[in-house]
């Protein structure tokens, strides 16, 4: 509901950056695609920083930053196009059929 309100007010809201921390909790499938589209529309007027575990939402981003933990260190890395494909494939969770996941990830990024 809040995302819809933010979309409605986006042109008049003075806040230029919005942060969404796992706004995708409890959604999947077509609903995730709808949320991703709504966020993409808002991003035409605002900067959006999103923490997500859904490939549908990650694929709509203009930039993709991966935050991970290696040993006791936090690593923050901006991904290039190939790394984005690999990360979205990983989010799809298809270790059994990695080639299929890569194809699906590429298709999501083209949408």
Which terms summarize this structure?
two-stranded parallel ribbon; alpha+beta; 5 helices; globular; 111 residues; P-loop_NTPase
> What Rg is obtained from the alpha carbons, in whole angstroms?
15 Å
The fraction of residues assigned to DSSP E strands is: 15-25%
Biggest sheet: strands side by side, in what order? 1-2
Q: What is the H/E order?
A: HEHEHEEHH
Instruction: Work out the count of structural domains.
Output: 2
Number of distinct beta strands = 4
Number of helices: 5
The outline comes out as globular
Unreliable residue runs: none
Structural class: alpha+beta
Biggest beta sheet summary? 2 strands, parallel
Mean pLDDT value = 91
What's the N-to-C terminus distance? 24 Å
Helical residue percent?
Answer: 40-55%
How does the SSE layout of this entry go?
Layout: H1 2-9, E1 17-21, H2 29-42, E2 47-51, H3 55-58, E3 65-70, E4 73-78, H4 81-92, H5 98-110
Parallel strand pairs: 1-2
Antiparallel strand pairs: 3-4
Helix pairs in contact: 1-2, 4-5
């Amino acid at each position: 509901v809040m995302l819809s309100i933010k979309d409605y007010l986006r042109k008049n809201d003075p806040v230029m950056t919005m942060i969404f921390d796992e706004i995708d909790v409890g959604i999947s499938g077509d609903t995730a695609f709808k949320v991703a589209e709504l966020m993409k529309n808002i991003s035409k007027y605002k900067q959006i920083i999103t923490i997500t575990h859904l490939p549908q939402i990650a694929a709509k981003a203009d930039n993709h930053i991966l935050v991970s933990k290696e040993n006791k260190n936090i690593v923050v890395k901006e991904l290039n196009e190939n790394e984005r494909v690999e990360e979205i494939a990983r989010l799809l969770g298809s270790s059994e059929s990695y080639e299929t996941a890569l194809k699906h990830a590429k298709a999501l990024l083209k949408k």
